[in-house]
Automatic annotation (TrEMBL):
Molecular function as annotated in GO: electron transfer activity; flavin adenine dinucleotide binding; iron-sulfur cluster binding; metal ion binding
Family of the protein in this entry: Belongs to the ETF alpha-subunit/FixB family.
Keywords for this protein: Flavoprotein, Iron, Iron-sulfur, Metal-binding
Residue span relative to the full protein: 67 to 412 of 433
Protein name (Swiss-Prot/TrEMBL): Electron transfer flavoprotein alpha/beta-subunit
GO BP terms, alphabetized: fatty acid beta-oxidation using acyl-CoA dehydrogenase
């Protein structure tokens, strides 16, 4: 798929050659950088190297200067820092305005953001304001060096195809990428870079939104993205009891977490926050068990970062067998207990 810009966009973009450098939005919450921003520094480093340009992190917040070192250590040559009390909490209005002003002043060629709630919100607002293209929820990034185009790949048409989208006449080229799709870069301790600190004048009384209170989410936190072992179940587990017994049984025995296909979620066997895949979470565990899961593309896009995929399925032609590291053709109700029971005795 190609996003072709009209004459208006070309005029707005002006001379595309003036845009240089790869930027990564460094999303932080209460002084902690979100892991996806560090993953994007790794991906951004590769793009910047191919293009022969600088990689910069854009750090917005209040009293966040100390985070710049981590950004350099993950590969950035430069950090653009805007520190202001009005940026303490994320608000579309303030972050968008500050980011857009920076982009207009320094003209980056590429801007990357995590496809988190904040990143998705900010990227859309920034792209609209800059009147440029944005490819959301990418699973792959590369460069067409000849045309200096960002090749942003993402599932399209309900996940039936992988589309590589380019923004031919717009700059900056923008993309959001889901957490865990890119690998965490190796840290280079003590690595230094340049700090560009910008002052902005943001007065609370001029802003349309105000943060009154931060309320922590209640209930069980399901952090599948950080799990090292995931035991995921699908429709093949038959019913809620089968799902509970097989998935939770093995996950408990292995010290892993439970995940699910959309079919299992839609059947009401487990909550949506456990869903893995295109409309669920993207995971990158060391081991991923796919039990009674056929391996639809929308599920597979969420598990490609797993080191090892072990699939159990009665159908030898199930697509999951083309993707997995180890595949067992058989009935989960017979095979999984053979694994769970001895583990319980350890
Ligand atoms: P099925 O495809 O029905 O597969 C069940 C499998 O279990 C079969 O392969 C069968 O052979 C096997 N089986 C049956 N009995 C046993 C047994 N006793 N032992 C072993 N194996 C057995 N899906 C997701 O998972 N995540 C998403 O985020 C997601 N997003 C989507 C977004 C869109 C826009 C669309 C259109 C679809 C999306 N889907 C998603 C749905 C996806 O297309 C599939 O329908 C879904 O993944 C199928 O789930 P499943 O593999 O559990 O079920």
């Amino acid at each position: 798929l190609t996003t072709l810009a009209g004459a208006e966009a070309a005029v707005l973009s002006g001379d595309l050659g003036r845009y240089q450098g790869v930027w990564v939005f460094i999303e932080q919450r209460e002084g902690q950088i979100m892991p996806v921003s560090l993953e994007l520094l790794g991906a951004g480093r590769q793009l910047a190297q191919k293009l022969g340009v600088e990689l910069a992190g854009v750090l917005l917040g209040h009293q966040v200067c100390g985070l710049a070192n981590k950004v350099y250590e993950c590969g950035a040559d430069k950090v653009y820092l805007v520190d202001n009390p009005a940026l303490r909490y994320y608000r579309t209005e303030t972050y968008m305005q500050v980011f857009v002003d920076l982009a207009k002043e320094y003209l980056p060629e590429i801007i990357l953001m995590g496809a988190t709630t904040t990143g998705r919100d900010l990227a859309g607002a920034v792209a609209t304001e800059l009147r440029t293209g944005l490819t959301a929820d990418c699973t792959g990034l590369d460069i067409d060096l000849q045309q200096r185009l960002l090749l942003a790949t993402r599932p399209a048409f309900g996940g039936n195809i992988m589309a590589t989208i380019v923004s031919k006449a717009h700059r900056p080229q923008m993309a959001t990428v889901r957490p865990k799709v890119m690998r965490m870069p190796a840290l280079a301790p003590g690595r230094q870079g340049a700090l560009v600190q910008k002052e902005v004048s943001l007065k609370e009384e001029d802003l349309l939104t105000r943060v009154l209170e931060i309320v922590q989410e209640q209930g069980e936190q399901v952090n599948l993205q950080e799990a090292e072992i995931i035991v995921a179940g699908g429709r093949g587990l038959g019913d809620r009891d089968g799902f509970q017994k097989i998935c939770f049984g093995l996950a408990e025995a292995l010290g892993g977490r439970v995940g699910a296909s959309r079919a299992a979620v839609e059947a009401g066997w487990i909550d949506h926050k456990y869903q893995v895949g295109q409309t669920g979470v993207t995971v990158a565990p060391k081991i991923y068990f796919a039990l009674g899961i056929s391996g639809a593309i929308q599920h597979l896009v969420g598990i490609r970062g797993a080191d090892v995929i072990i699939a159990i399925n009665t159908d030898p032609n199930a697509p999951i067998f083309k993707e997995c590291t180890y595949g067992l053709v058989g009935d989960v109700f017979k095979l999984v207990p053979l694994l769970t029971e001895p583990l319980k005795e350890l």
